[in-house]
Amino acid sequence: MNAQPIQAIAIGASAGAVQALLRILPALPADFPLPVLIVVHVPPDRSNALVALFQSKCPLPVREAEDKEPIAAGTIYFAPSDYHLLVEADRSLALSWDEPVNHSRPAIDVLLQSAADAYGPALAGIVLTGANHDGAAGLAAVADAGGFAIAQEPAEAQVATMPAAALAACPSASAMTLDDIIFYLLTLATT
Amino acid sequence: MQGQMQAGVEDIEIQLLLEALYQRYHYDFRHYARASIKRRLVQARGQLGFASFSAMQDHLLHDPATLPRLLNYLTVQVSEMFRDPSYFRALREKVIPHLRTYPSLKVWVAGCSNGEELYSLSILFREEGLDQRTLFYATDINPDALQAAEAGVYPLDQIRKFTENHQQSGARSSLSDYYTADYGRAVFDKGLRSQVVFSDHSLVTDAVFAEMHLISCRNVLIYFDRDLQDRALGLFRDSLTRKGFLGLGSKESLRFSSHAPSFADFVREEKIYQRREP
C-alpha cells in the first residue's frame, strides 16, 4: 500500500490513554528504529507524569519533547502539558502556546496535521481511545498526505468516541485492535 | 498523492505570502517557526474567506486594510496574568532582592501582546515597593495588541484564573485592589501603567534601545526558528546590564543558542538567566 517506508509514528490518545499506551509502548523493542511522537490529553496545571511512568516500563528511551529538538530515531516523545507539539519540515520538534484546539492543548490534530505535512507518505498516524473528537481531522490529514492511518477498533477502546470519530472523518483508516497495532508496528521494525 | 502535491503548492504559496508581507509592509515572519505559522495562516484563510493563500496575497498587496486583519492571526497571543505562578514567585523571591540594590530600574517585556504579563510585573513591582524607581518598556509588533495592552481591559470571566495565579505567585495584596469591574470587563488601574512606555519594536528587525535590568520574554521565542531565536537572544544580551536578568517561557531555553555562554542559569527550573560579566 505504501510505496515509501514509514519513517515516523504519531499517536494521539485521551481518556483511557495510559492503559492503551501501556500495552503498546513497552512492546516496542530497544532496537525499534522509528521515532514515536505522542499527544495525550493531560490537565494543563499538572506536570506531565507520563514521561517518568513510561521510562520505567519501556525498552526505548522516553522523553518530553523539547522545542527545536531534532527528532531522533528509536525515541518516544511526549508532548509537554499545556503546549502543542508540532513537527517542522526539517523534522525537528516544535512547541507552541497557540490557543487550545478541540478544547485541548496539546491537541492531537495539531500533531497529526503538522506531522503529515512533514512526513507525507512516510507517516503512520494512530488515534486511540478517548471521549472527544480530537484527532479526527488530523487522521484525515495523515491519509490525505499519503500516510498510513489507523484508529483503534472502537469496540475495543476504553472510550469509543474518539476512534469512532476518526474513522468517520477518515474512512480509509484501518480499524485495529491494540494487538493488531502492536503487530503492525513490529513489522515496521523489520522492513 | 494528490494531497501531497497540494501540500507542496501550499508551502510555495506561504513562502510567497510571507515574502510579500515583508516587502510590502516590512513585517518579517519569514523566520518564524513554519509549522505554527502555517496553522495560523490556514485559520486566517478560512475565517477571512480566501480560497487560497495566493488570493490572500493578492488582497494583501493591493489592499492595506487586509494587513491588520492578517496580523491579528499571525501575532496575537492569548495569555493570562501571572501565567506560570512559580515563575513570578521566583522573580519575587530570587531576582527582586538583587534588583533592590539598584537606585533605578528598567524592565523590558518583549512581545507584550495584550499586556497580561506587563500588568503582572507592574503589580509585582508595586507589591515589592520597587514601582517608583522602575521604568517598564512594553513592546510588540502588532499595533492592535499594543493598544489593548495600553487599555488594560480584560474579560471579567478571566479574572478568577488571574486571581488564582496571582495568589500562587506569593501575592502581598489582592488582585481586586487593581481593577474595577465594569459591564463584564475588568478595567485595570491606570496607575499600573504610569511608568510604562508602550512601543512598536521588532525582535526580528530592530535594535537595542535601552540598558535593561530585567527582560521578560515568554513564549515568544518558541515561534521563531533557530536563526531568529539567536538574533533575539543576541539582542537581549546586548540590552542587558552587567548581571541583568532574562526570563524565558517554561519550554524555552538557551540550549541551542550560540549565545548560551553569555548567560548563567539563575533559577534553572523557571528559565531565569543572568547575564555573565562581559
UniProtKB/TrEMBL annotation, chain A:
A single cellular component GO annotation: cytoplasm
Q: Which UniProt keywords apply?
A: Chemotaxis, Hydrolase
Which Gene3D superfamilies has this protein been placed in? Methylesterase CheB, C-terminal domain (3.40.50.180)
Tell me a Gene Ontology molecular-function term this record carries.
protein-glutamate methylesterase activity
Q: Which reaction does it catalyse?
A: [protein]-L-glutamate 5-O-methyl ester + H2O = L-glutamyl-[protein] + methanol + H(+)
Q: Where is the CheB-type methylesterase domain?
A: 5-191
Question: Which residues participate directly in catalysis?
Answer: S14, H41, D134
User: Per its UniProt entry, what is the enzyme's top EC class, as one word?
Assistant: hydrolase
Keyword Hydrolase part of the UniProt annotation: yes
Task: Report the EC code(s) recorded for this entry.
Answer: 3.1.1.61
Record CDD domains: CheB
Q: Which GO terms describe its biological process?
A: chemotaxis
Annotated membrane-spanning segments are none
- What PROSITE patterns has UniProt attached to this entry? CHEB (PS50122)
- The name this protein goes by in its record: protein-glutamate methylesterase
Q: Which organism is it from?
A: Sphingobium cupriresistens
